[in-house]
Amino acid sequence: MNQPTTPSGEHLLSNMPEKAAVEATAPPSSPPAAKTIRVALIGNPNTGKTTLFNALCGLRQKTGNYPGVTVEIRKGYFHYGDHTFEVVDLPGTYSLSPRSPDEMLAVELVLGLRTDEPAPDVLLSIVDASNLERNLYLTCQLFELGKPVVLALNMMDLVERQGKEIDVVHLQERLGVLAVPMKANRKIGLEALRESLLQAAAGKAPPLPKVFPEQLERELVRLADWLRERLRLQNLASSVHVEQKCQQQLACSRFLLQRLLLDVGGSVERRVRAVTGEELTSVLDAARQRLAEQGIALAGLEPRARYSWLRERLRGCVHQVREPATNWTDRIDRLLTHKVYGTLIFLALMLLVFWSIFSGAEPVMHALEYGITRGGEFLADLFLPQPGMLRSLFLDGVIKGVGSVLMFLPQIMILFGFIAVLEDCGYMARAAFLMDKLMARCGLSGKSFIPLLSSFACAIPGIMATRVIEDRRDRLATILIAPLMSCSARLPVYNLMIAAFITTQGFLGHLLPALVLLGMYLIGITLAPLVAWALKRTVLQGETPIFLLELPPYQIPSLRLIAYRMVERGWAFVRRAGTLILASMVLIWALLYFPRTGPDHRGNEIDYEATCAELRERLDSAEDRATKERLHQEYLAVQGQWRRNSWLGRAGRWLEPLIRPLGWDWRIGMAALASFPAREVVVGTLGIIFDVGEDFEGEAESRQLRQQLQLATWQDGSGKPLFTVSVALSLMVFFALCSQCVSTLAVIRRETNSWGWPVFTFFYMTILAYLGALLVYQVGKYIG
Amino acid sequence: MSVLYVRRLNELLPGQRGHVVAIEGNDHISRRLMEMGLLEGELIEVLALAPLGDPMEIKIGSYRLSLRSSEAQRVSVCLNVADDH
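^ Those are the sequences you sent over. The predicted structure of the assembly is below.
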């Protein structure tokens, strides 16, 4: 939706909209009528920011994607008075000193440095009022931006529980901003907040906080002079107003100058250096050196200076008026973060989450599948009663595609229901705390645990759940290894192969299938940490993110908000991954459908579609069982011939030299290709190719497929059986590791906001799967 | 008179309390620790250790943080032994 901006950072200093500068120095006396007032919502994590955003804007929201960043920025709208407000929900952060592209985006949006987004008119700073000083650190940085700020004092209920009272009038005077006490989760304080936003948009920016020593301020001026001169020389030929322009730009980028000097090796320094060249480094080094000579160490200067300023400002603003109520968080935490009980409770909870996604969703999924199939047939009978391409496209392409999109909804909504509860009540951070050491061993953090666990049921909700991971590299690594967890769609493949080929007599006969199944799960569990470790050392290389997690106070979650999150996530999946999944289903349908004519199993040239329709008609009108049986066999044979002759079948044949080392013939290869939309499709495809149809609801049909596979022989005339134990294991290992699931790839595309990562996932997993299958087959053949 | 001991935060056990004396390092990690309110003079208390001994949960002011021992070792804490009794 947004035009990409120049990545060079050119706009950072030279294309800055003049409007921003004008507003910073001379705010208009009243907001012009009918103008949209832009609000940037910013705050620490766990302050109820998203709750406030939803309460303010309701469903009038949209999401924006920005190139090069993985965070999703939401925008919402509301009306108040004669004005429309546009609220941009920025990612939760503790500080505005950007180190990653994601953090830099927040700074750019707040300052209005992006050409695709106008600058905000008001900054809405939401704080947890029960923890005022720490939360105001970020607000204090916002005061440097020269824009009106409104302070939302959220979680006033917690302040009351602490037995404290905030003197809001005094606080407003001390900070020079409007402050609104609120309980966003109960929609208390919203009207006052809207009114304050309107007032602030017409008002002045708060006074600049004087937090830094004089010497540093002097260095900032010196740096500004150097930059101005530098830019003037660079732009000399192009403009006469450069001097004036630069002045405006630099006047309103006081904050950027601070960042330049204070954040050694930060994102702002990198951006500016892209414009000014290497000279910047020496200028900054010299400035820092001069400060050091005057006894001013930059390390920790800003936090110390801002906190001491805040402490002085906050004096007399918060009063202890009552005895604090019982601190339940302390008591609950003693149990939930306990070494033994905490771990047991955590494991029980995770078991419940996993069981709910794995088994709890199943009846709903079956009902959905039944409903969609029957509904599709009903519609097809109504509008496309004649057999033909359109009916086939509708039933086997579109309806199956829609079905496979909707099928994920129960799992997604159940997982996000749990995540919403766990996050809102404050347990999510504890879960990350408990599991961190385990995940740290493969370079991840505790926050990756729940997404990866969910992936054992299905990688789709698992990948969507990686949003809880703030660090971009950690999140990407988790997304990329999530599909290695053995999901429930692999079970039909495992079950078929194990039932047909992994059979022995006696005691081992009971144990072996279970061991093989366990082995399939272990392959993913063993390889995933290794892949994560390798990724973190190659494509996702970078500084180790700090694991500094706030453990928020426990709270009772709101049912309304949980339901809202479940529906929102489910809808986001359908809307944003649905089309891609549907398109690939139609593509695979076409590859299996065309060409429609070709030789039948006797070598006669026939129209498959017409022959199948004719056979079905005769089958329906046949009287005796023997004829029915014969016609059914005939029908299956034509179906099989049709698919074997299809483009996909031909692709399988072309690929045969490549898959021969895996012990597969082209028919197995074709089945693997056809399962690109979803792994479980391979079972139905094998059924069609081996002439037993694709419906395996009943035990009789499954037994028939197993028998057909056991009887299948190589077609090179040798008559050797096609499937051996090694071939079955090779196929299972392939499916344990491959990425034959278009929905996973579609979700990775959406979550990473790039095509590169799904393509990367597909290739690395396919290569891994190929090598795994190769190893298993070759070793198996050697052992005999 | 109580005896003062200076220890690194990662050496503290659950239940032990003390005042922050210093935060070592001038990289972004030390900076983040300080931005989160871990400053000289603050009273902190170790609440719990995770099952595998790392990370730790600490209380500082009215809020709780979790941090790994690799980061906690940058923080030196002045332990008041009288608190133990």
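Residues 446 and 756 of chain A are 26 Å apart (CA to CA). Residues 559-593 of chain A form the longest helix (35 residues).

Shout if you want it in another format.
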